[in-house]
Design goal:
Elements: E1 3-4, H1 5-10, H2 13-20, H3 29-34, H4 43-55, H5 59-67, H6 75-79, H7 84-92, H8 100-117, H9 130-140, H10 145-167, E2 168-169
Helix pairs in contact: 4-10, 5-10, 8-9
Length: 179
């Protein structure tokens, strides 16, 4: 059950981090730093504040955020150790039902990408399917490292938007009148 934005705005720091800390993969520090920006007028305002925290983070923190993401169809996915959100996102893109050849292709692309950039390939699986993800790998492998950091952070922001929609009810249209 999503938490009400009104309730979220009233939470202490620890409860806030517990509620939205998983929005960014294994990076509760983003919610921790964003708590001070409360109250949020809408879920979009919350998303913007969280993304602003990422934008003002150090390069090392931003790259750590990217590295916190799992490889698509990687060892963690095959071992069943992904976060529930990542598991659902990869399954929604059809990445849980691949042939052995497709798994091998993902492994090859993941390895080449990680070797070139030093972090995993990140793409919003909720807006992509297997074919578009596979098509993106060779294109993005041609990017500069700076361009890929920016692309990965933009993809992470999109992932966070979907995750917030799953966890926070945007009750900004609620008048507070009893029903």
């Amino acid at each position: 059950m999503p938490v009400s934005l009104r309730v979220l705005n009233a939470m202490d720091r620890a409860a806030f981090v517990a509620a939205v800390g998983g929005t960014f993969e294994h990076s509760p520090w983003i919610a921790e730093r964003t708590w001070d920006a409360r109250p949020f007028a809408s879920r979009d305002a919350l998303h913007a504040a969280l993304c602003a925290t990422v934008a003002t983070a150090t390069t090392e923190e931003q790259e750590g955020l990217i590295r916190a993401h799992p490889d698509l169809v990687g060892r963690a996915a095959r071992a069943g150790t992904l976060t529930p959100a990542s598991t659902n996102e990869q399954a929604g893109a059809g990445l849980d039902a691949l042939s052995a050849d497709e798994v091998a292709l993902f492994d090859q692309y993941n390895a080449a990408y990680r070797e070139r950039f030093g972090f995993p390939f990140v793409i919003c699986a909720r807006t992509n399917k297997k074919a578009s993800i596979l098509a993106a790998f060779p294109v993005r492998l041609q990017h500069t490292r700076e361009a890929e950091v920016a692309t990965a952070l933009a993809e992470i922001a999109e992932i966070a938007r979907f995750r917030l929609a799953d966890t926070v009810a945007d009750d900004t249209t609620d008048t507070g009148a009893p029903s």
